Amino acid sequence: MTKEVEAATERPAEFSAKDYTDPPPAPLVDFEELTQWSFYRAIIAEFIATLLFLYVTILTVIGYKHQADVDAGGDICGGVGILGIAWAFGGMIFILVYCTAGISGGHINPAVTFGLFLARKVSLIRAVLYMVAQCLGAICGVGFVKAYQSAYYNRYGGGVNVMAPGHNKGVGLGAEIIGTFVLVYTVFSATDPKRNARDSHVPVLAPLPIGFAVFMVHLATIPITGTGINPARSFGAAVIYNGDKAWDEHWIFWVGPFIGAFAAAVYHQFILRAGAIKALGSFRSNA
Questions:
Q1: Confidence of residue 195 (pLDDT cuts 50, 70, 90)
Q2: Which CDD domains does the entry link to (predicted)?
Q3: pLDDT grade, residue 31 (50/70/90)?
Q4: What is the pTM of this model?
């Protein structure tokens, strides 16, 4: 009897039941979404979240520059500093992802949307409209900042992402690629159903690690590019400020984040989650 029990319990690992369920891949094009109110509600949520994100963070940047402006009676050591700016960006992402995750997924970033599209988490239609909503929200958010603080906005550069003196465009592009990789990799890890099941004994609040990732990347890359890692953030500031310097280097803040998001999606889906091996195993079993 004991041997029978041992034989029953000693099953190969391949027959053990999964303790998590992977959601089915999103269709490439899903026209049915266009008939659902939840789809438009998600687009509105992305628009408003990005608007609020840019409004608070750009105000923080401009406020710090004014407080540290010695010529305007400020203190060079005054204001929130780089640490405070990084907290503003990371904290707002934490808050907004928490608020919108159940409605739109809380992307608030075209690079995040692009990465999730590559991983088949969202359809092409949803990805494109999310990016449009995010960019429009960013423009409106920065527009509110300029409307309320027009003198300071123009004087302190409008929070536009530009290369810092002493750094070339290659360095800036590399910083944007790696910074966005960290962010999108964190998004995949924090929302992975396998991780949530296996580590269920550890309470994980997904917006928290995502917000911390944004915070840490800002600490590292503010002195280089002002930190983009979000094409909508860079685009909104460039459109409203509309200076030559912003547009000359603007391509860095699209190319870098999209390359970083692509690398993060490939790394997580095909290496960490062994997507290529699973596909090959399925092919062999059907042969």
A1: low
A2: MIP (cd00333)
A3: confident
A4: 0.86
Tell me the torsion sign for CA atoms 185, 127, 283, 197: positive
Distance, CA of 133 to CA of 128 (rounded, Å): 9
* Predicted pLDDT at 24: 78
Residue pair 234/253 in contact (Cβ under 8 Å)? The answer is: yes
Instruction: Match 């924090």 to its residue by tokens.
Output: 190
CA distances from 284 to 59, 110, 278, 279 (A): 56, 37, 10, 9
Q: What is the DSSP letter of 270?
A: I
* Cα separation values, 154 from 8, 174, 182, 237, 278, Å: 74, 29, 32, 12, 54
Closest CA to 250 of 137, 146, 135: 135
Q: What pLDDT score was predicted for residue 11?
A: 46
Does the structure show a pLDDT above 80 at 103? yes
The rounded mean pLDDT for the chain is 86
Alpha helices of the chain — where are they, by DSSP H?
2-9, 37-67, 81-100, 110-118, 124-148, 150-155, 169-190, 193-198, 207-225, 231-241, 244-248, 252-266, 275-286
Residue pLDDT, tens place only, 68-85: 887 777 777 778 889 999
Nearest to 112 by CA among 198, 197, 233: 233
CA distance 99 to 92: 10
Give which of 205, 211, 224 is closest to 86, Cα–Cα: 211
Average of per-residue pLDDT across 118-141:
96
CA distance 247 to 235: 9
Q: Which one is predicted more confidently, 272 or 201?
A: 272
Report residue 155 as tokens.
């004087």
Contact 122, 32 (CB under 8 A): no
